[in-house]
Amino acid sequence: MYVYTCKSSSLDSKSSSGLNKLTIILCKEPQLFENCFYFYSRLHGRYHELAPHLVPMDYTNEPDCKLPLALIVNMPELKENPFRNRIVESFSEDGMGNLSFNEFVDMFSVLSEMAPRELKAIYAFKIYGNEELTPEEVELVCEKTIEEADLDGDNKLSFADFENMISRAPDFLR
């Protein structure tokens, strides 16, 4: 049996989610362990690329390295998201958006298509539910939704646009 352990610091131990600060993955299948390790090492490469001068390849001497919010929100995966600051801040233990490598892994694990819906819901609430959205943020969400769903480019959602949009969200149809 393979054991993989990492410190998960993005949720506090008193969280109502029931998630602990320590995540342990027990793998009976070597292939699953290798896939987890590949994901982890690939993310370390991305983390290091954002600030090679800050992020060591070996954490022996600098185990507490953190990347600033400004670098993370400009990643291609987040750059177009109007809530990118809130997303990053919700995974940041310091509340300023600075992420350790483990927090960075937590963020991309939750953003992954493979993350359980329940885990995504916990973080969606942390991102959007802890305080009300401003009128500007509501407008931005509407604009982005129309932009993504509007097939014919008329800045309106027709029935065909709506039908296409919900067909891409299988959980909506349940």
Automatic annotation (TrEMBL):
Compartments (UniProt record): Cell membrane, Sarcolemma; Cell projection, Cilium, Photoreceptor outer segment; Cell projection, Stereocilium; Cytoplasm
Name this protein carries in UniProt: Calcium and integrin-binding family member 2
Example of a GO cellular component annotation carried by this entry: photoreceptor outer segment
Chief place where the protein resides: membrane
GO term, biological process aspect, one: mechanosensory behavior
Keywords: Calcium, Cell membrane, Cell projection, Cytoplasm, Magnesium, Membrane, Metal-binding, Repeat
GO MF annotation terms: calcium ion binding; magnesium ion binding
Domain of life: Eukaryota
Residue ranges annotated for the EF-hand domain, each copy included: 137-172
InterPro entries membership: CIBP, EF-hand-dom_pair, EF_Hand_1_Ca_BS, EF_hand_dom
